[in-house]
Amino acid sequence: MAKQILIKPIITEKSTQLADKRDTYAFVVNRGANKLEIGAAVEKMFNVNVTRVNTAIIPGKPKSRSSKTAIVRGTKSSYKKAFVTLSPGEKIDFFGGEEN
User: Fold this and answer.
1) Backbone dihedral region of 39: left (phi > 0), alpha (psi from -120 to 50 degrees) or beta?
2) Which domains does the chain have, with CATH numbers?
3) Which of 5, 14, 46, 54 pairs with 39 at a CA distance of 20 to 30 A?
4) CA 30, 33, 38: angle at the middle one, nearest 5?
């Protein structure tokens, strides 16, 4: 069974601005995936041409919350993020609203 490379897109205000200005999209990806595999997966899934892939491993952050009896401390999981730059003029439509 092949590993799933793209886990989910990152849709935030900052990533939306990157997509509008630089044709760069952010994804949460499998930690074991390399840049070539990520680029091929995006090209296959969205039918676009990828020009560049940058990756970053985001470390887990400590979090705490209060319960009735104590303060529960823990950490959020770390993950790998990929920034995929497309050829000029190409877009990925995550919501399916735009049709030309």
Assistant:
1) alpha
2) 6-86 (3.30.70.330)
3) 14
4) 95
